[in-house]
Design brief:
The chain is 49% helix and 20% strand. It is an alpha/beta fold and 137 residues long. Helix 4 packs antiparallel against helix 5 (121-132). The mean pLDDT is 95.
Length: 137
């Protein structure tokens, strides 16, 4: 199975994040999670960025969930909405990339804390970084 990236965000941010996500995924190609761990088969990274009224309505709750029995991780970290929208194109790209890397680090930390389990999240991040090198936005 693979690394899966999606977006849940307020409209203004959602379209921008989704465009950046597509560029990153195109450049990354297919990443097999089993190349970095034997403990899970897939990682779902859901990038969140919600305006204040959506947050007040209950959207945007961060999630850091790993199911060892069904062998998947579901990670949902937030990008600050106002900061994201006011950033330039390069800064937005860096914020999305950081969200992906932070999500991988959450999985890395949690799996490596569990007895008998291991995950090489830093190698995964390094591999992604190599693929994204010299990426033109």
């Amino acid at each position: 199975m693979k690394l899966f990236i999606s977006v849940e965000a307020s409209n203004s941010a959602a379209f921008i994040i989704n465009d950046i996500r597509k560029i990153i995924e195109n450049k990354m190609g297919k990443i097999e999670v089993c190349d970095y761990t034997n403990n899970i088969e897939s990682i779902g990274i859901i990038i969140n960025s919600w305006n204040q009224s959506d947050l007040n309505f209950g959207h945007g709750k961060e999630r850091k969930y790993i199911n060892y029995k069904q062998r998947f991780a579901d990670i949902r970290l937030n990008i600050p909405y106002d900061e994201f929208l006011s950033a330039d194109k390069q800064k937005r790209f860096e914020m999305v990339k950081k969200n992906i890397y932070d999500s991988i680090r959450v999985v890395d930390e949690r799996i490596n804390k569990k007895k008998g389990c291991s995950f090489d999240g830093e190698r995964l991040i390094a591999d992604i970084e190599t693929k994204l090198k010299n990426l033109e936005l």
